[in-house]
Automatic annotation (TrEMBL):
InterPro entries: Acyl_CoA_acyltransferase, Bact_Acetyltransf, GNAT_dom, Sper_AcTfrase_N. This is GNAT family N-acetyltransferase. The lineage of its organism: Bacteria, Bacillati, Actinomycetota, Actinomycetes, Kitasatosporales. Keywords: Acyltransferase, Transferase. Residues 6-154 form the N-acetyltransferase domain.
């Protein structure tokens, strides 16, 4: 089930505050940093090649996504890493996260990637079931205390 009208948009001066006002449920805060913290990390760590977009449904910002887009160095050098995926608490359970991730996967594949990596912190309410439905599998690696996942793209 896809959520109609879900698309990714650049974050500009016109929408930055509305996007910063998006928040997950209280019980999810341990699993995903806020948009404000994510934007600060992106600014502080340009060598990670942060690529981020607001997730919109129609004309309304409903989420945020950020990748490390083929950084030149580090553990994910030359690879795409899904750094953040946040859907506002008011819009969860409507297929928006699935549609946003599907669009990210398409963009990454179009960039010639053979995989997409992400990680999550284990715990009650963790996002593992969400990623598992997409076909992500654990790599056996840890990034700090987070379990690293890989989605391999079959040859076309």
């Amino acid at each position: 089930m896809s959520s109609p009208g879900v698309h990714l948009r650049e974050i500009t001066d016109d929408n930055r505050e509305a996007v910063r006002d998006l928040h997950v449920r209280h019980d999810q805060k341990q699993f995903v940093a806020s948009v404000s913290k994510s934007l600060k990390q992106a600014a502080k760590d340009p060598e990670a090649r942060p690529w981020y977009r607001a997730v919109y449904r129609g004309d309304e910002p409903v989420g945020f996504v950020m990748l490390s887009w083929k950084p030149p160095t580090g553990p994910y050098a030359g690879r795409h890493f899904l750094w953040r995926l946040l859907i506002d608490k008011r819009y969860q359970g409507q297929g928006i996260g699935r549609e946003a991730l599907a669009q990210v996967i398409t963009l990454v594949r179009e960039d010639g990637a053979t995989e997409l990596l992400t990680s999550y912190e284990p715990g009650d309410g963790e996002p593992w079931p969400f990623y598992q439905k997409f076909g992500f599998v654990p790599t056996g690696e840890l990034d700090d205390d987070e379990i690293v996942l890989r989605l391999a793209f079959p040859d076309r």
